[in-house]
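Entry 14. Structure prediction run on the chain below.
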Amino acid sequence: MNHDNNATIAKLIAQELAIALHSVEKTIALLADGATVPFIARYRKEATGALDETQIQDIKTSLERYHELANRKETIISTIKAQERLTPELEKAIEDCWDSTTLEDLYLPYKPKRRTRAEVARARGLEPLARIIMAQNERNIERRAAAFVSDEVPDTDQAIAGAADIIAEWISENKRVRNTVRSMFRREAVISSSVTRGKEKEGETYSTYFDFSEPLRRSSSHHILAMLRGEKEGFLKVNIAIDADKAIDSIARTVVKGYGEASDIVAEAVADSYKRLIKPSIETEFRNEAKAVADDQAIEVFAQNARQLLFAAPLGEKAVMAIDPGFRTGCKVVCLDARGNLLHHDVIFPTAPRNDIAGASAKVTSLVKKYGIQAIAIGNGTASRETTRFVKSLTFDTPVNTFVVNESGASIYSASKVARDEFPDQDVTVRGAVSIGRRLIDPLAELVKIDPKSIGVGQYQHDVDQNKLKTSLDFVVESCVNSVGVNVNTASKELLSYVAGIGPSLALNIVNYRRENGSFASRKDIMKVPRMGAKAFEQCAGFLRIAGANPLDNSSIHPERYRLVEQMARDCKCSVADLFASAEIRKSIDLKRYISDEVGEPTLRDILRELEAPGRDPRTDSQDIAFDDSIESIDDLREGMELNGIVSNITQFGAFVDIGVHISGLVHISEISDRFVRSASEVVKLNQAVRVRVKAIDYDRKRIALSMKGVKQ
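Output returned:
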């Protein structure tokens, strides 16, 4: 790509994202040099003007999109040039175009076509007649058409019909016409759906959309995605349309001149062009656009939820017993040490049908004592309430807290290659229970082992653009991992792979090196890992933690700034360790003394913050919630009840809350607050403890409507 294109793209991105051009240019240069988003956001604030991770990621995404568009332009120019139809004016128009829709309109008349009706008519020599009719000056079209009768065109009627097909295609390729119709679609389009005949019973899930319509511009993303899913599954027919007569009249005003015979033929071609060519094309365009917007909104909600789940409060390094509840097959029990290593596994049967309370009690209390268990994690699936009640009835010699843990995706992990590699000699039930326990110790470290799509939050994750979803979720996971930091001596290869600059291959090399050579003593030692080059080290070092001789190695201060911190210590006549330990010494540091061409105030303030609280964890502490013991199933619920709950999922239309009856109730967005909110995430977060009121119960359909309005939190 040439320099002019790069400069133009930078300006376009700056305008599009409302970010200073200088910041965009510097960010693009850093990305081109191999810098990662987390590294740029954390360690290159002076260059970017302190852009945050999201802004930098947006620049990266826009840059990739414009590069794709530039490649598309090169392909189009090459294709038209091969046809020997490329004029200097057309080439300039294409080169100056940075809008994909406009670009495709420019290309449309030259785009290689299938054997269309217009192509057939051209092959029969009818294009000159089409030009005569389109000029709308000829009074006797029948006489002029007679000259085009041949073996392939037996009479004048067919000659005129063929010419009209060519005219219809010209009209459909007319940029002004297409923009006129687009404007009408943007203002007036209605999206509607109807049930496929004979699918009423089978597709009952989509009954809301059996006879549904609303203005497209006001249609919510979950409506659009639901309708398109219903159509994909064969239960619905979806249509996006405007008033056809109005559209045809509008096009006619653009291309029809006068009232003669030729004008009548052109008017008929307008109607044909709209119904057969323009409407299907523009409908597809708007369908794709609506789907893309709906995808983006759904992915944003999914990403927010994933971030909250990954940032769930860690219990920390404590010995944990994890229980995967069950009825008939019993409850799988595992005991883990403070680092999540499996020490023991067993099965208890405290619930129906066996109800072996005595045996289960003896076994649990014995294991708690033997392995010094400090907390018990119970999966929130089947038999969770009953198992939790049983555990909380027990008495232990030492304090043991009980937590209910979201187990979504644990079964997927337990059957994965990652789990098989970790526990080759254990079955899926043991692996699943281990995952539940590790989620309590450190949710982030455990959840990175699972495909983010499988962690049980969001909606329509299998319907949205999978590439966009993967990019968004990878960014979220990478952001969370690098925000928290990673202990290089204990982290799994899955966790290490998300550290800036590392990736799966280098993560495996780190784990293998650690296994063969023992723990890393300093960040410098990381350079000994095979294929750990200077660039990769630069990108990852600040996010890796090592509790060794140098306290800087266990902080987010980058090795490139060690000399600066050491200079601060010398100036304060103390050690680096003293800088971490003494607030008084830190207060005496005059940051302005250390400003240079490379280091500005933003970096210096980050260093000072890190000296105050090295390696701070941005996550909060774990908390537990007690459900109402008198409520065990939906049949126990009554309207008006106020209950404790945990937010289990957040969507665009509200939040789902687990109230302990195995069915999450929905707090619609209109019931989530006494004030108006655009998104449920403005009020609640995943795993948040809330108080809700039962608004309505549909016992047959197993649906619970909840409200938080007027309920004291």
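DSSP finds 29 helices and 15 strands in the chain.
Filed with the rest of this week's runs.
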